[in-house]
Every structure is written in C-alpha cells, then in structure tokens.
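Today's session is about reading a structure prediction critically. Students often jump straight to the picture, but the first step is always the sequence itself: look for stretches that repeat, for charged clusters, for runs of hydrophobic residues. Only then move on to the predicted structure, which in these notes is written as discrete structure tokens rather than atom positions. Here is the chain we will use throughout the hour.
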Amino acid sequence: MRRIFYFFIFIVVFVLGLTFAGRHAESVAIDYHFGQLHVPLSLLLALILMIGTILGILVSLITIIRLKRENRRLRKSIRWVEKENANLRTISLKHGQ
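Below is the predicted structure for this chain, in token form.
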C-alpha cells in the first residue's frame, strides 16, 4: 500500500514538474566571467533546487557525524560506569560477609 502511495506522489510531482517546465520554457541568460550561457528557466530552477538540497544534506551530515561520535563516547562511558558499579557491588557483598 505504501508503494502505491509513493508511486502516486511521484506521478503527481512529475506531472507538476512537466507543466511547470512547459509554462516556463523561456530562456534565461547566465553571465559569468568567461562567457554567457542560455538555459531554460525551469532547468535553472531545478538545478538550483538540486544544489540547495545537496548542500543541505552535506551540512546536516556534519551534525549527524558529530552526534554519532558523541553517542559512541557516551555509550563507552556508560559501559565503564556499569562495570564499575558491578565491581563495587561485588566488593560490598564480600565486605558484608
């Protein structure tokens, strides 16, 4: 059922993209230092959207990697504290007898 839903969403987005491309087919000039490039407006907007998405993912990956590293450090600390706690329990049991 989920695949059908995602397929339907994909078709809707694809059709909307095609209609957007058809309505915004005029050419836009991009001037840069070494020349000039003419591309359709819809293609330019799609490229900018893809570049923004990729940059957003890369920026969030930095945070995710940092959080995973901290998570690993905290798990190691928890294991050490649990081991120390178990050692203290065995010592107190031996001392209590």
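Discussion point for the tutorial: The CA atoms of residues 71 and 84 lie 20 Å apart.
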